[in-house]
Amino acid sequence: MTRHAAFTTNAQGQAPRGAALPVARPMEVESGDRAPHSPKAGAHVQIEALSHRYRGMSGNCLDDINVTVPSGQVMALVGRSGCGKSTLLHLISGLMQPAQGGVYIDGNRVNAASPRWVVMFQAPSLFPWMSVAQNAALGLRFARRVSEIPERVPALLEMVGLSAYADRNVQDLSGGQQQRVALARSLATQPELLLLDEPFSALDAFTRRALQQDVRRIAKELGLTVVLVTHDITEAAIMADRALIMAPDPGRIVTDTMLDPGPERHRDSPAFEAERARLAHLFETTA
Amino acid sequence: MTDAAYTPDDAVLTEADKARAAALKAMARNLGISMLGLGILGALWAFGGWLITQSDGMRAFGQLAPGPTLERLWDMIQRGEIWPMSAPSLARVGWGLAIAIAVGVPMGILIGRIGWLRDLCNAPFQLLRMISPLSWMPIAVMAFATWDGAIIFLIAVAAVWPILFATAAGVRRIDPAWLKVSRNLGAKPVHLLVYVILPAIAQDILTGIRLALGIAWVVLVPAEYLGVSSGLGYAINDARDSLDYSRLGATVLVIGVIGYALDTLCMLAIKRFSWLRSDT
């Protein structure tokens, strides 16, 4: 079995609360191992002729979806409620199986959930009988990589800015802090693909903004491929390299566009505002 | 450091002291109320004993009053009779509960998780649950080679239902998102059981065990009227047959005290395994 390297944080590790998270970088990898989070580690996702219908429903909820997500890309699935974007995310994750067509990650068909591609849901769904560190370590425990816990979990908690909370019960944390624990838990098994199912929609505006920037930065640092489901145009513009706009009845992709909101992705910059407006216009005219 | 620098620490200390004093006050109040409740019970007991002694036909039972009973209890404690009397009963309840837990918890988890099994078992289990455990007595006597076996069976039959139903209800209340998140992180069924289901329902299981213990302790005494020559039920029967009413009263008191102690242990365990933050 391949041993994976631990995360380390850089010298900016002591960022004040509310500021950007410390930037993480992959550690040196033992000889012979592939760096799991080197910039080329993200999964290549291929969705081929995928259609899906829920049992008892007359029509397809997703119809003939064909998408390729290259390694390391952050892609947003944007659409109104009921357009099937969350269903598509569940199908990519293997938590559900499509009626027709298939999802292929690095050329292998997805038949089941795997710690190599993990979903972050809207609710953090942490386990209230565990501490922050125990929650973060869960994926490693399930993968029988318990020996990695003492090294990796502190590094993960440092990466999401919660080192000081390691031994606290998760019920003592705010909503934003809980979602950061969920992020650490998702990243513990060093996935190649992070699937985000509106994970910030229950948070207040300030916390949401901080997490949007932090998650994108972490994903880019780790070279992860990310699929983000959102109904928030601004969120898509802040986080994604590319946006797919979906329309309902049946759920289908109507627009596929690359995003270029400027190098800083700063929401006050003219470039960002122009790109956001373009995406909003595309959404209004096609979705 | 200046004096001013100490002010926040002093304030914190004062707050901590206040909190400690409030906690002590609450504890003293609870203890006081408990003692008052026991005092009222003792007064009612004494009044009942006095009434008995006033009645010509009942005077023989006057030994059941607090005075003679407590005197006899002290005598029994000094002679070391309490443990030999209680140990066989505790062992029978322990075995009966262990069997009820071994059957009730896995069955409760299965029923909580599998819809068709729940529907299949609902009618037969409700029917069996409503049968008084003591009505199994003749069958138990025939089916088991030893009296101990029959008594343990009766206790297990009485105790299994609260454990099974509390477990199943706990499993049904588990947040489905916890299971989805776990599967997503690569959990196998055994991981779901050990890291999610059992911790999530620990409190429900212990609540079921607490209820079961109460029922088992109640069933124990009549069950020990069966052919055994040990245990608290036998001791009561024996005291009645020998018209030794102070000994009978003392044994009843021992049953109450042990039952109360076991219930308190269960409550402490429930508190220990509770993960809900209701008071913080």
Structure explained in plain terms:
The complex is a heterodimer of chains A (287) and B (280). Chain A has 287 residues and is of the alpha/beta class. Chain A has a domain at 42-116 and 222-287: Rossmann fold (3-Layer(aba) Sandwich), CATH 3.40.50. Chain A has eight helices and twelve strands. Chain A has a six-stranded mixed β-sheet with strand order 8-9-10-5-11-12, with helices on both faces. Chain A has a four-stranded antiparallel β-sheet with strand order 4-3-6-7, covered by helices on one side. A two-stranded antiparallel sheet of chain A has the order 1-2. Chain B has helices spanning 3-54, 66-79, 82-113, 115-129, 137-143, 147-172, 176-184, 189-223, 232-241, 245-273. The model of chain B is unreliable at 1-5 (pLDDT under 50). Classes of the chains: A alpha/beta (287), B mainly alpha (280). The interface between A and B is medium-sized, with 24 and 21 residues.
Rg calc of chain A: 19 Å
Shape of chain B: flat
Structural class of chain B: mainly alpha
Q: Spatial order of the strands in the main sheet of chain A?
A: 8-9-10-5-11-12
Proportion of residues in extended strands of chain B? under 5%
Oligomer: heterodimer
User: Which blocks of ≥5 consecutive residues of chain A have pLDDT under 50?
Assistant: 1-40
Beta content of chain A: 15-25%
Taking the sheet with the most strands of chain A, its summary is: 6 strands, mixed
- Secondary structure: number of strands of chain A: 12
* CATH topology-level name of the domain at 42-116 and 222-287 in chain A: Rossmann fold
Query: What is the typical, i.e. mean, pLDDT of chain B?
Result: 87
Number of strands of chain B: 0
Supply the CATH architecture of the domain at 42-116 and 222-287 in chain A.
3-Layer(aba) Sandwich
Biggest sheet record of chain B: none
Compressed to H and E, one letter per element, the order of chain B equals HHHHHHHHHH
